[in-house]
Amino acid sequence: MKISRKEVEHVADLARLKLTEQEIELYTEQLNSILEYAAKLQQIDTTNVEPTAHAVQLYNVLREDEITDSMETEKVFENAPWAEDGYFRVPKIV
Amino acid sequence: MAYSDRYEMVCGVETHVEMATKTKIFCGCSTEFGKEPNSQVCPVCLGMPGALPVLNREAVNLAIKAGLALNCEIAEFSKFDRKNYFYPDVPKNFQTSQYDLPICKNGWLEITVDENPKRIGITRAHLEEDAGKLVHSGETITSSSSSGVDYNRSGVPLLEIVSEPDMRSIDEVIAYLEELVQIINYAGISDCKMEQGSVRFDVNVSLRPIGSKEFGVRTEIKNLNSFNSVRRCLEFEVERHAELYDEGQSPVQETRTWDEVKGITLSLRTKEEAEDYRYFPEPDLVPLVIDKQWVERIKATMPELPAAKRNRFQALGLSAYDAGVLTSSKAMADYFEQALAKFDDAKTLANWVMGDLSGLLNAHSCPIEDSPIAPEQLADLLGLLQKGEISGKIAKTVIAEMYQTSKDAATIIKEKGLAQISDEETLGKIVDEVIAQNPKSVADYQSGKKNALGFLVGQVMKATKGQANPGLVNKLLKEKLS
Ligand SMILES: [Zn+2]
Predict the structure, then answer these.
(1) What is the DSSP code string of B197-262?
(2) ipTM value for the complex
């Protein structure tokens, strides 16, 4: 499987990344070599193997519906680049 | 010309319901509505790096319960997936949802439109987390220079219920939504407070020429939050499709938004720009295995659902209409049943609950669960009316006073001296006075004009401020004038 320049552009667009011409070329090449390496897995016969939903064989890790303390307000906004009147603020969305 | 002369509508709905858990789906933050912005948040629901989600058992219980109430199969094996997209109300840049293995699938519910029962299929119902709330600086998102984000809602457990495209008219869509919300509300899955946005609908609609078997091009209208919006939005959208087809054109497959003020739908994004969510299994959450015992345990907690309750109310002698109104919300049905436990004339009780009580509640925009008149108090009032201690007219005065003061009927009747006068001697004196004061009517009556009696009865009622026992007044007048 080979991924095209167009697919790289699409993925970059989905990830909100603005790539330069050189970057698009570089990443197309790098992504292809990663995928080629991972393609070795395709050689394994998985006919009778159930798809894996999770890497560990563990189920039903659940918590009870009990309230725990939320964060203090100062802490909530400690890393926020912009906050006002109890809200995180973000620039124009659309 | 209405579209339905030429086209058949095909509609399916996705319903998002905020579930009635105390805490969020993956953390212990409270889900209480209306708190200070960002006061119910933690590293998990703020999407901070390294924070790990742990699934709320109660959210799973409620999802199973919803599945059972909607006649679904409950998956023995279910898992969570990441739905990737960028929007400021989603702090992790993905929403934790369920993709290919939802917790419930293949269910149905029954609706009745124009007395025709019909089953609407439920494709699936899955668990996911709600997003935060955006507050824009301008009037709309596009006219805003910035937006505020409140993550209190981020991580509130949602159940997304997806219907089959089985609905063929707007009335069927509304009937489906009403029945669905009622079931969810009765089963205790959600408080279904529409005005707080705890239920939201996405509708998919297309038209096809009558008789055609193929589906037309569908549009999806997102984020409607009341039955009325759904109705108005669909009325607009089907006419829009019909006009396009009439002109030899076709709608394009796209996502649209409903402008409540202008009453129109607007394009959000077309199929070409459609989202590519790149779902993949959520590595931070292990799968769910739900065995038969778990399902049985939940089944045992299932309360009576609306359809069963409607049938039972009809068996008490109520009409289908009355049974429908009284079961329209769980709170209404609960009120009726609590009052019925103390006053067993179901028809009279139904009339008072749907009439005077609902009138007072509506006039004060008060939900029935907050009624200042307790169900037992209404039952007592009707008991006094039944025993003839007060007249129907006085009962109406008393219920209004009960609403204002929350006092018992008996107390109000005593304080205001409103008890019905059924004492023959007292009433006899008043009747004598009325006869003395109205010689003309008396003469009319005695000369055969029987309706003059009604006037005289009215005069006695007036003299007693409505407290005279009307039956007794009639009897006394007839006796004295014969
Ligand atoms: Zn939290």
Answers:
(1) T-EEEEEEEEEEETT--S----EEEEEE-SHHHHHHHHHHHHHHHHHHHHTT--PPSEEEEEETTT
(2) 0.89
